Amino acid sequence: MRMTYSHLDLLALGFFLLCWFGYAWFAGRHAADRPSLVTVMNPLRDRWFEQTLTRENRIVDSALLSNLMNSATFFSSTTLLALGGLLALFGSVEKSAEIIENLPFAQRTSQQLLEAKVITMILLFVYALIKFTWSVRQFNFVTIVIGSIAPRDELTADDRLYARRAAGILKLAGENFSQGLRAYYFSVALLLWFVQPWFFIAATALVTIMLYRMEFHSRTLAVLCGDGE
After folding, report:
1. In this predicted model, what pLDDT tens digit does every residue of 20-57 receive, in sequence order?
2. Is 67 part of any domain?
3. 194-211: per-residue pLDDT in tens?
4. Distance between CA atoms of 121 and 138, rounded to whole angstroms?
5. Does residue 11 lie in a domain region?
6. 101 in Cβ contact with 89 (< 8 Å)
7. What is the number of domains present in the chain?
8. Structural domain of residue 22, as residue ranges?
9. Is residue 76 a contact partner of residue 138, using CB atoms and an 8 Å limit?
10. What are 116-145's pLDDT values in tens digits?
11. Rounded-to-integer distance, Cα 106 and Cα 131, Å
């Protein structure tokens, strides 16, 4: 099978990396100038833990954290399954190449190039797994901090300090969870590289625009900001 490792493949991969890392940088900088889903939710996390200090028991807080942790755990488990499937695909690349070539508009590719594509996808899901599992640990840290806070009638200045720290850890957990989800979105675009580099480029651009729209111009953001009422 002849090698079809072309400049277009390099261009598509470079464009993908530029959009992935470039959007992460842009979103962080742009969020400092205008509301985003992250910046709007962070004050609500602070308010959550202000309310935690006023509750006689904190069963509600435990239930909410459990729900957040379950979401992160679900995606961690799903990512492991995806990695298992990709490792199995890597072990049967030659047979997979024949199947992919029969797809409509599929580009003829070599075993070496297909292996490179699978490795890239594996690295993307490893990144997602790290982000999701780290967010699970951070949610666990928050539950421990909540457990260390004294009852409402015995609160001290240290307890209020711990509540602020818990809110800070919760923000970091939310950011890591969002970055893991972002990797999932970009994995959809990367999947099209197996078919055609031009499809890969188009899907990468579409995913980047979609992420921008959701984070900075979605109806959800408008409601959270009070503009959708």
Report:
1. 999 999 988 887 788 889 889 999 999 999 999 988 88
2. no
3. 888 899 999 999 999 999
4. 26
5. yes
6. no
7. 1
8. 7-54+77-224
9. no
10. 888 999 999 999 999 999 999 999 999 999
11. 32
